[in-house]
Amino acid sequence: MNPIRLGLARAAYEITIYFRRTDEVFFTFLFPVMMLTVFAVAFSKTTWEGGISAAEYYLPAMLAAGMFISGTQALGIEVATERLDGTLKRLAGTPLTPAAYFTGKLIKVLVTGIAQAALLILVASLAFGVGLPSAPGKWIAFAWLLVLGLITSSWLGIALARIPRNRKSASAVVLPFVLILQFISGVYLPFSALPDSLRSVASVFPLKWFAQGMRSVFLPDSYAAIEQGGAWHLGQIAVVTCAWLVVGAVATRLTFRWIVKE
Hints:
72% of the residues lie in helices and 0% in strands. It is mostly helical. The model has no long low-confidence stretch (mean pLDDT 91).
């Protein structure tokens, strides 16, 4: 079969199955929307620097978290489960190639991640009155940050799926890693308020850079002064994110097998 058609067919299957799993949709698709609502309501009387609201402050953080959850968390658990319950072993006997399998996963994450980001922005704008950028350059930056972040998160999730040793441990392995990174990467807590040691650790991983990139799009330029280095550093964000994309893709290439002898 044509590999492109095979990959697109797998992507259509992945997207259809995804939206039939209501629990997965809630915890990966709607979770950032719910968290934005919680923070916006809980801190509705708090005025942040520059006169912005809590919803304006947490929108870029939830966008970054959504990217990481849709890719790293969701695929880390999903692919590990498919490996450990025999799904990949059965797929080995079909015309599906690893490239088509990965294509299906990546397209699914791109489609659901973009839809999730659009829903987040819509809720923030209509429900909480968040002002959106008017400069075209901001939206161009948002587009490449979103797409690059989702692809990078997807490869990291597929690579991470090789670690769990049984189906019951998949969530236990992936969720703590994702949750800890959210707390130290400026998602739930202001990054500038964290100790230098935690900021140094977070700077190694991509989620911190996802959040910083999204802040550069949706927060006033005055907020750049409190970032590490006193600027948004979009070039550095691109370099670090691409480096993690390569790490995830290479790790997947080296460790992925249809049939794994445990």
